[in-house]
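Team,

Forwarding the record for the chain on the shared tracking sheet. I've put the sequence and predicted structure together so nobody has to dig through attachments.
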Amino acid sequence: MDIDIIFKIAGVGIIVTVVNIVLKKSDRDDIATLVTLVGIIVVLMLVINTVNDFFETVKTMFSVY
């Protein structure tokens, strides 16, 4: 497994946290909530793609020729 996916998730988390803090300080709580939701969706898409690749690899390993 690549460690690259962990760095991508951590990067998204750091960016979302910084933007969330800035927006909350400027009294934009509704937009901060949307940014958090978008961050969660982006991370879920990364994880879903990784799990899909894993299942494709398992499928090819156990396929009968």
